[in-house]
């Protein structure tokens, strides 16, 4: 069985974001980078599937500058067999269509039985790339999964809908699935596996060699949201703050009545 | 400009998002028609053409078939914009349509600015204004961003869409939300824990404050996913929608999915170390502090009242 998992490296979302000089994305310096949280679930599910079927080859793919190789190494340490890095220092300027086109272009003649992606990225959140890859490859896709099982060429899964409801769905492989938070419990790489991962194949290919497509979206402006006045901001010593908050709760709410 | 609005229907019910789609078209100053895989017995309030495919034939969840039916209607109507809710139905279907049309897709639109679409990035800390370079564009709307002041009225002119069987995904029913646990929707005071509590042991700090305020405790999604709190405590799009008199958000940055579940609270107090956290946008009061220091003192003082 051949499995592909597609991951993205994103900044820690707790970071302070500054708009870059070109005004088309955030400034990339002074940020801590990590694996897109949704993709951690995708990698974990792919590794579990590989362990279940025994005979499987699991490739992890990532697009970005050389910096993203750190995140790919984590995926290799979690249990992926090989890494495919599409070296693109301008990937932040590509839209979901252009990103999906690169991945589908790589995957089209490789015969993957299953492709895993996160349901969205934490920084862009378009929720498009996974479905677009599947459409480009002409295979079915199941999105927003919170349960996944595989047997005899068929996927049985549950999609998460609004209000805690789930939809039971199934399809035949080859297929693509997009993973929602909570699908499984992503493992922490162990030290021996981190050491082993250093010896695994990780090949970088310049994006120009892959026949990239142009984006269909143009970014006009990036800015922090306008403050809508908002509420009262209180700062200071915790004991003073506590007194102020109690006063406010007494005056503005019935909570202490 | 002409738009085609894609309404949603689930398990015998028309979902409320159609009024947001209609309001979006109005804000764009555009003509509209609507597409729905649903039932003739439950029609949306809408004064326009409604292309209706019968859900009995087309299936509740059958994206490749729904895509084909929608593409047929798009071919007839020739819209410049195809508009869906950014929901589990919409974000699944939209890219399928966009690829078939080779159209740009703009996900989770929160605002129209100078005729262009504005979308959130990085947990709503940034906003991007984007423009499609294609003749037809697919957009999905963030839930609640286009809620109209007044509900739309009118009866649609129904045009039936013929359904032929097909599809590569099998749908075999719904699983209800887990029963039991706590019904937060009826709580008058809720104190919720977010990722900022840092570790599971700190949930007790939140529970103690909830007790001191005689309320219930809730949690954001990351806390539930980490299994620090039970799923029945989750507030947000995929958890419970709450409307308490007082909502205390502790260490919750304010992801859209969380805000959607609690923004109708009467009074919101946020406690967060980050002054710029998006929760500040809707909080009546934001106390900039480490919850591990502030909340135990606050709880003690409340208990002494």
- Annotation, overall tally of beta strands of chain A: 13
How many β-strand stretches of chain B? Answer: 18
Percent strand of chain B equals: 25-35%
Order of helices and strands of chain A: EEEHEHEHEHEEEEHEEEH
Description:
Chain A has six helices and 13 strands. Chain A has helices at 37-53, 69-78, 96-107, 129-137, 191-197, 238-252, and strands at 2-7, 9-11, 33-35, 57-64, 82-87, 114-118, 141-151, 154-160, 166-172, 175-179, 202-206, 217-223, 232-235. Chain A has a nine-stranded mixed β-sheet with strand order 9-8-7-10-6-1-4-5-11, with helices on both faces. Chain A has a two-stranded antiparallel sheet with strand order 2-3. The longest helix of chain A has 17 residues, at 37-53. By secondary structure, chain B is α/β, with parallel strands linked by helices. Chain B has helices at 18-28, 55-58, 63-77, 90-101, 203-212, 221-225, 256-262, 291-303; strands at 2-6, 9-10, 13-14, 31-38, 49-54, 81-85, 104-109, 111-113, 116-121, 126-132, 137-141, 157-161, 170-175, 189-193, 216-219, 246-250, 267-272, 285-288. Chain B has a seven-stranded parallel β-sheet, with helices on both faces. Chain B has a five-stranded parallel β-sheet with strand order 15-14-16-17-18. Chain B has a three-stranded antiparallel β-sheet with strand order 8-9-10, with no helix packed on it. The chains are: A alpha/beta (257), B alpha/beta (305). At the A-B interface, helix 4, strand 7, strand 8, strand 9 and strand 12 of A face helix 4, strand 7, strand 9, strand 10 and strand 13 of B.
